[in-house]
Amino acid sequence: MADDRAIAPVRMAMVGGGPDSFIGPVHRMGAELDRRIRLVAGAFSSDAARSRSTGLGYGLDEDRIYSDWRAMLAAERTRPDGAELVAIVTPNHLHLPVALAAIAAGFHVASDKPATATLAEALELQRALEGSGSVYALTYTYSGYPMVRRARAMVASGAIGTVRKVVVQYPQGWLATPIEQQGDKQAAWRTDPQRAGVGGCIGDIGVHAFHLAEFVSGLHVDQFVADLAATVPGRTLDDDCNLLLRFGGGARGVLIASQISTGEGNDLSLHIYGSKAGLIWHHDEASRLTVRHADGRMEVLQAGAGPQGMGARLPAGHPEGFIEAFGNIYCDVADAIRGQRELIDDRVPGIKAGVRSMRFVEQAVMASAQGAGWVALERDGA
Amino acid sequence: MADDRAIAPVRMAMVGGGPDSFIGPVHRMGAELDRRIRLVAGAFSSDAARSRSTGLGYGLDEDRIYSDWRAMLAAERTRPDGAELVAIVTPNHLHLPVALAAIAAGFHVASDKPATATLAEALELQRALEGSGSVYALTYTYSGYPMVRRARAMVASGAIGTVRKVVVQYPQGWLATPIEQQGDKQAAWRTDPQRAGVGGCIGDIGVHAFHLAEFVSGLHVDQFVADLAATVPGRTLDDDCNLLLRFGGGARGVLIASQISTGEGNDLSLHIYGSKAGLIWHHDEASRLTVRHADGRMEVLQAGAGPQGMGARLPAGHPEGFIEAFGNIYCDVADAIRGQRELIDDRVPGIKAGVRSMRFVEQAVMASAQGAGWVALERDGA
Amino acid sequence: MADDRAIAPVRMAMVGGGPDSFIGPVHRMGAELDRRIRLVAGAFSSDAARSRSTGLGYGLDEDRIYSDWRAMLAAERTRPDGAELVAIVTPNHLHLPVALAAIAAGFHVASDKPATATLAEALELQRALEGSGSVYALTYTYSGYPMVRRARAMVASGAIGTVRKVVVQYPQGWLATPIEQQGDKQAAWRTDPQRAGVGGCIGDIGVHAFHLAEFVSGLHVDQFVADLAATVPGRTLDDDCNLLLRFGGGARGVLIASQISTGEGNDLSLHIYGSKAGLIWHHDEASRLTVRHADGRMEVLQAGAGPQGMGARLPAGHPEGFIEAFGNIYCDVADAIRGQRELIDDRVPGIKAGVRSMRFVEQAVMASAQGAGWVALERDGA
Amino acid sequence: MADDRAIAPVRMAMVGGGPDSFIGPVHRMGAELDRRIRLVAGAFSSDAARSRSTGLGYGLDEDRIYSDWRAMLAAERTRPDGAELVAIVTPNHLHLPVALAAIAAGFHVASDKPATATLAEALELQRALEGSGSVYALTYTYSGYPMVRRARAMVASGAIGTVRKVVVQYPQGWLATPIEQQGDKQAAWRTDPQRAGVGGCIGDIGVHAFHLAEFVSGLHVDQFVADLAATVPGRTLDDDCNLLLRFGGGARGVLIASQISTGEGNDLSLHIYGSKAGLIWHHDEASRLTVRHADGRMEVLQAGAGPQGMGARLPAGHPEGFIEAFGNIYCDVADAIRGQRELIDDRVPGIKAGVRSMRFVEQAVMASAQGAGWVALERDGA
User: Are B210 and B255 in contact (CB under 8 A)?
Assistant: First the structure.
């Protein structure tokens, strides 16, 4: 902030995020929270009236509200004040075509997870990014939380000793009944293989859990057993996932992701146990991190206290949440666009994480369908 | 959002909020969160370099970054794109002069609490507002939380029966040691009668507790006994406050506000008991509201589930916090400025709440100093 | 346990504790938990059939089940295997006559709180105890909890610095409706001045809160303001109590005891803040003690871990509760009877605490009735 | 209790439970808590001095304190006041010989888990029990908790709909370091295959988790994948267990049992999700049961409120714990001995549960060692 010129915000266009969207507004609020990014254009819906309504609600100029994202990319790339960054918040099947077109047109990309609908698509996207100048970021939300970042830093510093066990759980209950047959749009596309891709729950929230486990532990899953089920009658995609994990180095773990855990909201949790201490984080108490020491001591660390640089904006006791976590990721995206490319694939998930997640999704779906036991999860050349 | 034109955001200028400010950035982020308001100018500090640094950090045009708030008001009132709303985030002693000047110049005002440094000042401000066209709002943060608004609605609807007891507690620990003597700027002005006004802790956070109790219960405090102490050696203003309350209609209560509750963060809490049920809210779990029924049933209500209109942006399980609570208040401020004046003094605290709070502060300070027992709290003509 | 002879348990007789009693069985279970005491006789009810039913349920010999407690005392004092200790678990108005008779007959006494129905009675009891050889203990339950004892030890050791603030709260909701008019026996005698004595809620649970505050802080309440209310129509005794406290040495505090806090169970809590740290204990999480340090660190201590001698029987993570807390007090009673008289008035409340509590009750009731402000609480020659 | 004669308590002898025992005293306190059972004899240790010290500490007659459990069985069977019930609280390898001898001599048996050290032993025990008149009970502690029993009743009543998912987790950290090499006796025998049997963690606490899952869900595990690890160098038995489960009827689940979850105490938890609601129970908050409804409502049920017959002795808000849970099981044991044999294998685990658990342990150990995938868990003729 001690610069001698105003910091020009990164100009952002959004694809998706129309009137019924949950995640579109979150991207918008998070991206703009710190004034590092500014929404300037959007193709919020292919229905012109719906897109217009959303854009006007944001106060956008009418001529920068589009119903065709291809038209938007074409128009924005030539404007002197045109968007630099494209946020993709559509159903999964559009992630690839939008991202490819955006990259081809020279935009940077921030995409909601999962990277694509299939592994093949993710690999295609990876190839497209090679040699391009585009920053590509995947919004694995939970990696933006201050106490997740602090947990990761503690593990990396050796504070908990050698990691031995990682349990990650993501219980949701909103798909416990077949609401996709009752007009719920969010449920409809997520349970539709044409729009969601190969994975249901595993692709929707399993990837969050998978990323969180690797992000904080600093380890890679090498083997797994997957049991994925389509529990609610009428579904073809999984809505409940249970996996055993083995990490490189010998740590073991469990991953649970479920959308039929009736009544549950969004309490993603991580338990990571090392030879010296254990760390426990729950999304329902996102500003806290519990440390359990081998000698029985139990500490509760709080966001806003302790080391700087974890992303807390406010002192301890002033709750921050989901939007702020998005904000932290988008700050890093802005920094990456403005030059700090090294943030991508380190603190901010990029296409590597995208490919890895899709490989995980696809192998898990296949292994489960085959009733397989232990399966090796391939590592991409890293 | 279904309007046919873009919604023009309210243009805001800020007074205060320089590099060391805690609350300035919160006002900025909250105000802008929903794109209803846009910061366009600021006099962030009387030190030109510090003000400039802050303003450039926000990406403001250099010519709209001021070091003299009077100059800012003069300049902004004449610009066609000038600010409409002035946010006051200075130490308390400047609340009145800035507000008076802003009102005189035709601006709307959103002021941090307390309204002013003394009751006399609050009454002067009230007179200035009479007949002016200015919207005046006081950011009693906690009234912006969805579950506080839901508690209020439940009480008003009779869901808990007749209110009998109200316990409001605001424990902080950050002034447990004399950090004002060790260079802490936030502590320095709050413990200085010249800048803080007549109340220390009572004016800083006691007013939050007082407002919350009346806001949710719908009752007025009629009598109280106050025990205010300057605990840490060297202080003249109170840093610890304990009060018994009696409300109109016969309910009783307790108000605790403390800044020497060592180790405590910011866990303001409200317990309100009616003849049918009790409601419990804690800032540390701001997205939850516990309902305890006379028959023993215990329910936990969550923000983002249940009735609309309480201010939750996200579905249950996605934590929102302090910034979002500010955002809710600022949305109402924008609505009020754009025509819905009735929101002020109803859902959004205005000068009435300001005068009432300052009367409370001043009477509490005086009664405590005199060792008085029960004291009647005057009601302003309402 | 390394002695060379069997440890003979203290033989106990019980007065009160018939079929509808809540606290009688708790005394019995607590007293016998560690095999230091054995129930051998009882006058559980003045209704012979009810007393017999209770006694047979405990497996007592028929000839040691009485309906007249005077007859029991007469008989047991002359048996070679007669009771040594009398547990008094009747409504308050019988505490004095039973205790006086028991002491006169050479028994030791363990009495439920409050000591007596009035201060005059407590003083009479104190005189009777002087020069007698009887051990007299008051079962202030909460002083038996391991984490309460640990908190007390921490305060005494200086671990939290100088005590500045003590907030004790005892919210219950079971008398929020007039259940005493609907056949509830527990409510009937507690709301009846003839059986409960001068205090309602203040005598029933306010004394627990008062004792806990002094027990842990090591301080004495010197002054208070009391606001006691009979909230539910038809009551003459208080059912809701709010008090401001000032302790010797300058600490301040608040005491809340309520039986109309609708929906609340029995979550007595203590917050005690010193110049270095704060301690927080809640009965709902009785096996934990939270320590909040001035530097922001927050620790959670657990019963069964840490220093010995606090009364935990089991390692951390194995919950103990109300019965075990009674057991800890009764262990001390047994030790006192077997020779360690110094435990009484130190770790175990005796008649000093009884007189002090009744003075507190009577002064609080009177001061509140008079609408008094600050009142000095007399200290008994200690 | 309304009988016309005193209820004679069941006379109990104990094998094991000497000076260093954790669980022996818990059995003793639990068994005696409700005066349904009375410890009259014991062979607490094969070291005569240690056994004597323990027995005298309990106030036992010297002639009923033994160092040889065979001698005890011989002596007690012939005394007119001899023990009727033998409590087995030894290391696992002694469970079978003591139980067989006790049954042969006509005693009833209450054994700590696991039933035996191996499946073959459990089957041998089962054969011995057939045709004998002995009651045999296994103290799966957690099945004695009121809220576990309530959860089971709710599931059985259809309150949560069809069970779809069961997650049971038992994290402990006390074996995170090799304390068995540092003189810890509890750790020494549990990590020694000669004394613990085929399973380490899986036999010690995994069986608790397994039993809890089946007990509450009313379902049987039909298939599993097991990943058991001996994490701490030097161990041959497992200290960390992760399993995927499939239940009859199609429900899926996860079982985690670990003794290297550093810093964890004993917070066994159960999450069970049905088509209508989810139930969540944590040992750390054993007196509460959370119900999460499909429509988003969240209720917290409390022990001591609600339906009778779940085993709570005290009204809501008065915590009960581990000893009381044992007490509930022992009450049922006493009832079974006094005639209600049907309680065994229904509410109280008997040899069926014992055989089943040992089959689970042995198959899990074997399958994990082989790196197997899905394995069928055989059902015993039920």
Answer: yes
Give tens-digit pLDDT for B264-279.
999 999 999 999 999 9
Burial D117-148 (b: 16+ CB within 10 A, else e): bbbebbbebbebbeeeebbbbbbbbbbbbbbb
Question: Do you know the residue count of chain D?
Answer: 382
Residue in D173, D231, D240 nearest the CB of A292: D173
Q: What angle do CA C225, C230, C232 make, to 5 degrees?
A: 145
* φ/ψ of residue C152, rounded to 5: -60, -45
Measured distance CA(B378)–CA(D180) in Å, rounded: 71
Nearest one of A382, A380, A343, A321 to A110, comparing CA atoms: A343
pLDDT interval class at D2 (50, 70, 90): very low
Any idea which fold D10-141 has?
Answer: Rossmann fold (3.40.50)
Report the CATH architecture of C146-312+351-376.
2-Layer Sandwich (3.30)
Query: Which residues in chain C are closer than 8 Å to B165, comparing Cβ atoms?
Result: 231, 240, 258, 260-261
B316 touches chain A (CB under 8 A): yes
A300 vs C302: CB contact, 8 Å cut-off? no
Q: How many helices (H) and strands (E) in chain C?
A: 12, 14
DSSP state of C380: P
D316 touches chain B (CB under 8 A): yes
Cross-chain residue pair C271–B294, CB shorter than 8 Å: no
Q: Which residues contact C381 (CB under 8 A, 6 or more apart)?
A: none
How much is the pLDDT for A228?
Answer: 98
Residue ranges with strand state E in A208-353: 221-229, 240-247, 252-258, 269-274, 277-282, 288-293, 298-302
Tokens standing for C172? 């219950």
Architecture of the CATH domain B145-313+351-376: 2-Layer Sandwich (3.30)
pLDDT of residue B23 exceeding 80, the answer is yes
Q: Is the Cβ of B186 closer than 8 Å to some Cβ of chain A?
A: no
Residues of chain A where predicted confidence (pLDDT) is lower than 70: 1-6, 381-382
CA distance C215 to B259: 25
Q: What is the CA radius of gyration of chain A?
A: 20
* Cα–Cα distance, B190 to B199 (Å, whole number): 9
Which neighbouring-strand residues pair with D229? D240
DSSP structure string for D341-356: GGGBTTTB--HHHHHH
Q: What is the widest separation between alpha-carbon atoms in chain A?
A: 64
User: Could you tell me where the DSSP H helices lie in D90-239?
Assistant: 95-104, 119-129, 146-156, 185-190, 193-196, 201, 207-217
- CATH of range D145-311+351-376; options 3.30.70.1150, 3.40.109.10, 3.30.1380.10, 3.30.360.10: 3.30.360.10
Strand, helix or coil at A101?
helix
Q: Can you give the pLDDT at residue B381?
A: 53
- The sheet with strand D10-15 has its strands ordered as D37-43, D10-15, D85-88, D108-111, D136-138
The CB density around residue A162, as the number of other CB atoms within 10 Å, is 13
Q: Strands, DSSP E only, in A172-239?
A: 221-229
Q: How far apart are CA C362 and CA C95, in angstroms?
A: 17
Asked if B132 reaches chain C (Cβ–Cβ under 8 Å), the answer is no
CA distance C311 to D121: 39
B108 CB-near residues (< 8 Å, 6+ apart): B10, B84, B85, B86, B102, B134, B135, B136, B333, B337
Q: Quick check: C56 and D4 CB within 8 A?
A: yes
pTM: 0.96
Domain residue spans in chain D? 10-141, 145-311+351-376
Cβ pair B323:A314 closer than 8 A: yes
Mark yes or no for CB contact C294/B262 under 8 Å. Answer: yes
Q: What is the ipTM of this complex?
A: 0.95
Partners of residue D316 in chain B, C-beta under 8 Å: 296
